[in-house]
Amino acid sequence: MRLEPISAPTPARRIVPPVLALVATLVVTSVLVMIAGRAPGDVLRQIVIGAVGSKFALLETLNRTTPLIFTGLAVAVAFRAKLWNIGAEAQLYAGAVITVILGTGAMSAPSFVMLPVLAVAAFIAGALILLGPVILKTRLGVDEVVTTLLFNFIFLLFVSFLLEGPLKDPMGMGWPKSARMLPEGRLPRIFDGVRLHWGFGVALIAALVIWVMDAKSTLGFEMRAVGQNRDAARFAGIPVTSVMIKTAVISGGLAALAGFSEVSGLKGSLTLDLSPGFGYTGIVVAMLALLHPLGVVVAAFFVAAIFVGADSMSRAIGVPSYIADIMLASALLFMVLAILLTKFRVRRD
Amino acid sequence: MATTVQAPPALCLANITKRFGSVLANDDVSFDLNQGEVLALLGENGAGKTTLMNILFGQYTADTGSVSVFGETLPPGKPGAALRAGVGMVHQHFTLAANLSVWENIALGTQGIGSFVLRSGQVRAKIRDLSARFHLDVDPDARVSTLSVGEQQRVEILKALYRDARVLILDEPTAVLTPQEAQDLFATLRQAVEMGLSIIFISHKLHEVMALADRIAVLRHGRLVATRTRAETNPDELVSLMVGTAVDRHDYTPRTVGAPRLSLRNVSTPSTGTRFGLNNVSLTLHAGQIVGLAGVSGNGQAALSDVISGLITPSGGDIGIAGQGITEWSPRIALSHGIGRIPEDRHKTGTIADFDLTENAVLETYRDQFSRRGWIDWRGARAHAETLRETYDVRTSGVDSRIRLLSGGNMQKLILGRVLEQSPQIILANQPVRGLDIGAVTYVHRRLVEAAENGAAVLLISEDLDEVRKLSDVVHVISDGRLSPPIPRDDATPAVLGHWMAGNGFEGEVPHAS
Prior knowledge:
- The complex is a heterodimer of chains A (349) and B (514).
- Chain A is mainly alpha-helical.
- Chain A has a domain at 69-289.
- Chain A has 13 helices and 2 strands; from the N terminus they run βαααααααααααααβ.
- A two-stranded antiparallel ribbon of chain A has the order 1-2.
- The N and C termini of chain A lie close together (6 Å).
- Chain B has 18 helices and 23 strands.
- In chain B, β1 and β2 form a beta hairpin.
- The N and C termini of chain B lie far apart (66 Å).
């Protein structure tokens, strides 16, 4: 058996595999649910209800969607240029740390000054975090998968140190937790009395900006060229190293905005559990979105809905919420397989 | 009945024809490999050697013809049949697992599924025995990643011998070796022949072929043009067989030669891995002139092309454009000085396969001509692509179709258009017609001649002597990274060029860089 590339896939070949992937995911989930002794229909219905079945549920899902859009975009931008940034988690925390440092008293300014400054500072912090691995890659050929991945653990320990030391809230009764953000440093809610904050709006704008940049700007063109064929890009006179560095700045910055948005919009302070792996889940989101910036919004919502829905289902029915991880993992695996089937056909010899 | 029974040939290829679209990769090729013989298969890139070997190993099915090994006909299109019949191949690029030991690599795939325990003792003993008999000195327990390239190649040969190969095919085996390692390899191969093996040696290096082969088969444009014994031939004849002699010279009108446009003075580049660098190369391209660069492939053409393209900066010597010395050098700088480049590999360096026609059309010019303040003017870019499509006869469903769907000829026409629409002062055309059908070849040639007539300085790099002689006003020959003096068109006979191509005449011509 071997795989044969398809030059021009038919519409059916584009649509059918992803649909099959979704079906396969549901089948795997259902089998596990049946093993757990529950009815798959009930469980799936409860997940949907828990995710989007009420205003409260929907807002909860949208809040969960926000950081995933940022990290998903960060990963998509990098992966499109074949820059394997696995370090969105560290970049997210870098953004969060800067937000907390500046937003808890280091500066004082009215909200309309403070918020942009926090966002820009977070963006720069995330960009700097990714710059190190990228320079190591372009100068010395060090594999960025390894450096960005391992740096996540180093940086998380550093955050832990900050929360036990310099950034520890003196009023925090000993918990490893930062002080509360000043009110001027908090992202306002989109609607009065509703928990959804403007981080979500910023995330949507970011997705639009990246989409337009990708399709219309010279930088987007260069990033796509470098990602698809580095040799041809170099031959055509595209400055490959400089494009990689610009890509890293945008990718790291976007991931850091997730940290800014979570601290400033949702939590109001920094703890070590700020992110339940948003940086890593961003990879799943980007892959499910086929690295398309607008697809990232949809995929982030889908992933957030599964997590939120599974939590609620677990409380209602008692199937452990780990089922969400399995659903995502199998959705990703089947999706990768489906992508393969849109590009290749299997031939028997 | 005859009283003497002649041994069947070790390998017999009979009337092999293989067509890919409009290209005849193999055209009625027949030859035998006698038992205990070294047969060299000589031919330029694209001559059909690789296709022939892929047919032998069942990767491709021939349109007509058959393959037999020791008198047994192989079933077509069955990979593995040749292997089982005792034919082993050593590829140019090794197929070893670097993190496994030598004996593990050799044993890999020889034991059936189900035998979970590798009988390492037996395997090692057999390898030691083979090493000793064939003088292939390798430690069976060494990790492949710690071995030199020469040693890795020995492992590949051992792998074939371990599988009881009686016919050994080596695809350009010396391309990756140092001269000393190559000598060792030849000693090994002679030993192997004495032990009764038959060998096919694929190469385009003439001195190696002359040193090792008993017989030489020459492929050109998919046809077997000649088979010679070593005694009855010489390197000069082989060159002319390989690259052709029949030249159509009629429609040549001398062009007015203008001012120098590009000059290289004593340019050197380091050799990297398997390819030659340049050794003190001096070359001047004049306006209105086509300069041909002939040479057996792999003698420094790629390095020269990369220097002129801006991809590599020479380690020594100067580049001058229109009389001005160049201090900084890159593809973008080369483009800004009016150098149009047609790269050797249109798939890998000339275009981006998943970009559409428009995006590929503006790949070199998007920044200067099709953007405003960081935004691309896609309307202008599309219009430009439409112009190229019409002017250069690129046949496609539209400027939105992806480049990978285009045929080689249409892809090349797009690249040609991208270059010529900029009215370049200097044109680098590296193998501009390789793999194209005859219509596209004529088209590309006509356009290059027109460009020269309009005053461009053209450098035509080609391994096809006919092409070089047909188009060029002046010819240089490159050999081992050294450049011959310019040879005027009328003096550039196959005999003269062949003499240079075989590496003669350079001694004392240019000082060797240390």
